[in-house]
Each structure stands twice: as structure tokens, then as C-alpha cells.
User: Which sequence fits this backbone?
């Protein structure tokens, strides 16, 4: 994961095995998942959504040193939606047959909805600074006509 990338002038390459063996990372993500689940339930209630209305996007977080979550790899959910085109932070996830498996999964769940996925390397301009594509872009929007 994160092959060829740097953060704080250090390589960030890490194997999937090292991620899975990192008990501190696992424990932190279990705690963060509890917050995500709570927010998910609030959104379902407030927006009258069902579980099938929600599309899960892979994400992993780490403690920022102050007890807050920061993204472990570029956070794909922080994309920009431009009609049917999605500008998605390139996650640099695990590779199988030279394909990022996070990108493969996201394409599989979003493209059947008529969306076009564009994965963009935002590592240097945004991710290294604690942000993503949406932090450095601005777009005019119109609300969806249908319930989202």
C-alpha cells in the first residue's frame, strides 16, 4: 500500500500484512468505527435512508497523536461530484495484478449507477497537508431532484 509515496520526507510504503498485524491501528479503527456507525444511524433516521441506500467506501484511519482520527491513505469518500463524474482521491491501496483493489471495488459499486470514476493523485498538493481533493476545489452545485 502507498507504494512510492512519502509523508514527512519518509517513505510510506507498507505491506497489507504489516497493516493487519498492527494492533494499535486495529484498536483505533474499532473505536472510529463506533463513531461512524452512530453517524450512519443518524443519517438513516434524518434522511429516511435504508441500509441499501448507503454505499460503503474503504477507509482506514490512524491516531493523529492528539486522539483524533486522520486518514491512513487518501480518503476516497472526500471526492468531488461533477454530475456523473467523480474526482476521487487515488488511494494507493493493495495491488493485485497491478491494480489497486480499492479502486477496483469503488468502480464495481459506483459505475453500475452510471457514474464515471476518475482517480486523481492528490498526495502532494492535498493529502500531505491533511486534506483531499475537495479541500482544493470549488464547484457550483444544484441539489438532486430525487431523494439521495
Assistant:
Amino acid at each position: 500500500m502507498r507504494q512510492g509515496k512519502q509523508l514527512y520526507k519518509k517513505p510510506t510504503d507498507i505491506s497489507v500484512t504489516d497493516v493487519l498485524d498492527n494492533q494499535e491501528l486495529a484498536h483505533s479503527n474499532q473505536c472510529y468505527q463506533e463513531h461512524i456507525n452512530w453517524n450512519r444511524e443518524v443519517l438513516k433516521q434524518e434522511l429516511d435512508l435504508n441500509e441499501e441506500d448507503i454505499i460503503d467506501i474503504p477507509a482506514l484511519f490512524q491516531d493523529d497523536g492528539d486522539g483524533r482520527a486522520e486518514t491512513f491513505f487518501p480518503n476516497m469518500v472526500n471526492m468531488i461530484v461533477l454530475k456523473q463524474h467523480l474526482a476521487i482521491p487515488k488511494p494507493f491501496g493493495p495491488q493485485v495484478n497491478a491494480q489497486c483493489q480499492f479502486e477496483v471495488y469503488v468502480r464495481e459499486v459506483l459505475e453500475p449507477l452510471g457514474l464515471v470514476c476518475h482517480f486523481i493523485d492528490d498526495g502532494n498538493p492535498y493529502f500531505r497537508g491533511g486534506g483531499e481533493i475537495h479541500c482544493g476545489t470549488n464547484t457550483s452545485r444544484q441539489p438532486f431532484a430525487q431523494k439521495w
The first strand starts at residue 6 and ends at 7. Strands lie at 6-7, 10-11, 61-63, 69-71, 80-82, 85-89, 95-96, 99-100, 116-120. The helical segments are 16-21, 23-47, 101-110.
